[in-house]
Design brief:
The protein is an all-alpha fold. It contains 3 helices and no strands. The chain starts with a helix and ends with a helix.
Length: about 35
């Protein structure tokens, strides 16, 4: 999971959402609880 988080940090929130197909709210929750 740490490797995935590191890769995500290289993108902006909206870009990540587009890439992985989730909403920004889900990404925010995932980031806070991950």
């Amino acid at each position: 999971m740490e490797q995935l988080t590191t890769k995500i940090e290289g993108f902006s929130g909206p870009q990540v959402c587009t890439l992985v197909g989730i909403t920004y709210r889900q990404l925010d929750y995932w980031a806070r609880t991950g």
